[in-house]
Amino acid sequence: MKFFTTFLTVLLLPAVGFADGDAVLNMANTAWILTATALVLFMTLPGLALFYGGLVRTKNILSVMMQCFAISCLVSVLWYSFVYSLAFGDGGALNGLIGGLEKSFMMGVGTDSLSGDIPETLFAMFQMTFAIITPALVVGGFAERMKFSAVLLFTIFWLVIVYAPLCHWVWGGGWLAQMGFRDFAGGAVVHINAGMAALVAVFVMGNRKGFPKTPMMPHNMTMVFTGASMLWVGWYGFNAGSALSANGSAGMAMLVTHLGAASGSLAWMAMEWLRHGKPSLLGIVTGMVAGLGTITPASGYVGPFGGIAIGLIAGIICYLATQQLKQRLKIDDSLDVSPVHGVGGVIGTLLTAVFAAPLFGGLGYDEGSEMLSQFGIQLIGVTATIVWSGILSYIIFKIVDALVGLRVTSDEETEGLDLVLHDERGYNL
After folding, report:
1. Is residue 342 domain-resident?
2. 209-225: b (≥16 Cβ within 10 Å) or e
3. Which of 335, 302, 310, 314 is nearest to 227 (CA)?
4. CA distance 295 to 310
5. Are 153 and 405 in contact (CB under 8 A)?
6. Cα angle value 345/347/351 (rounded, 5°)
7. CATH number for position 42
8. What is the DSSP string of 185-251?
């Protein structure tokens, strides 16, 4: 009898937990989101830091890693202090635009507090990892030329003024969510947002010294490959974790995420092979990132066919976008944030309306909606994100420039940010 009772307890364990009103803690979901949270942080540290670090020149590797690490620390403290509350709190009469401050310093959020059927502390931590990687992605736009003090100041202003309201609009019950806008894991909130900020940074700061005449090749492709592979694995937490449950939605999101990455890689490789006669490791891993960024907003709404189709489209269009920006327009987005994340985010967010159709194996639309109406809603969300991030990022860069200056001097840029700003070398050979 004792064995039978113990056996039943183990079987029922996922549904046993702390009660908060009518909600009950689900231990299986909690375990999965704990894992997903670690995976998303793993994307920034060490994944993005290694990926970006390998892409820059030897004299700037530590500056990029320092920026990624410091942003992770700074955003964490700000998120705890009040930004989580702005993003997910109740804004009252202004709730369509911004949350309130009632959850500042995690007031009222204890060990028994639930968000759905997982601990609210865990939900806040999971969302914190998204808030960390978004400004860290922007680093790729101004790499190798921005002052460290300016990076920190920009991150503070941008997180509060740009990221928090947009996050609330989409995931916190704001006006885009009320309209029915679909962004499962961050096509608009993360990728379009970061891509626009990176593009604005280039226009405000200008190109790197010597661009485009001086070759600025990645200094360590082994490091690039390592970081890219970590990003691929971490992205499972990014997309599948956004289901906030260990269920079929998470499983499908993981599957289409993987297929998006694989097909994006192959499409980029094919484009490069046709254009230059040889495929490159840099090309195939960049195609992976393009596929992942593009499938992100759609990952909870499309089926396997949609995952492959979106990945293929991403690999082709994002490849062409990098060629247009750098070769024809001579815009020095150092690590291709805007043509990969920005353009990919736009494509994926719009195509969510297309490949969510049951015809393509998608999960369908909300009651009373259909492809064209959903596409219109997606277009409104994309436009709002571009305008919001573009205009406010420009203002913030200008304010930071007036306060501390954005760019190192020409001589300091030549010497390299590692020695000039951090008194260290990445390599002592």
Report:
1. yes
2. bebeeeebebbbeebbb
3. 335
4. 6
5. no
6. 120
7. 1.10.3430.10
8. SSIIIIIIHHHHHHHHHHHHH-PPTTTTTS----S-HHHHHHHHHHHHHHHHHHHHGGG-SSSHHHH
- Is residue 17 in some structural domain? no
Q: Per residue in 122-138, pLDDT tens?
A: 999 999 999 999 999 99
Q: Which sign does the torsion angle of CA 328, 332, 335, 338 carry?
A: negative
Specify whether the CB–CB gap between 125 and 394 falls below 8 A.
Answer: no
Q: Could you give the percent of the chain with pLDDT greater than 70? A: 95
Q: What is the pLDDT of residues 253-274, one digit of tens each?
A: 999 999 999 999 999 999 999 9
pLDDT, position 326: 82
- What pLDDT is attached to residue 14? 46
Which three-class secondary structure state does DSSP give residue 91? coil
Number of domains in the chain: 1
Q: What domain range is 330 assigned to?
A: 26-100+114-419
Of 133, 132, 111, nearest to 122 by C-alpha is 111
Compute the 3-state secondary structure of the chain and give helix, strand, coil in percent, each to the nearest 5: 75, 0, 25
- Is the pTM higher than 0.85? yes
Q: Where would I find the H helices in 241-303?
A: 248-276, 281-295
Residue at 54 is within a domain: yes
Q: How far apart are CA 425 and CA 429, in angstroms?
A: 10
Residue-wise pLDDT tens digits, 387-415: 999 999 999 999 999 999 999 999 999 99
Residue 5 in any domain: the answer is no
Q: How far apart are CA 312 and CA 141, in angstroms?
A: 25
9 pLDDT more than 60: no
According to DSSP, the β-strands at 23-24 and 118-119 are unpaired
Q: For residue 195, is pLDDT > 60?
A: yes
Instruction: Kindly list the distances between the CA atom of residue 352 and the CA atoms of 22, 214, 288, 302, 318, in Å, as whole numbers in the listed order.
Output: 33, 40, 19, 7, 17
Helices then strands, counting H and E runs in the chain, come out as: 19, 4
Q: What is the DSSP letter of 407?
A: B
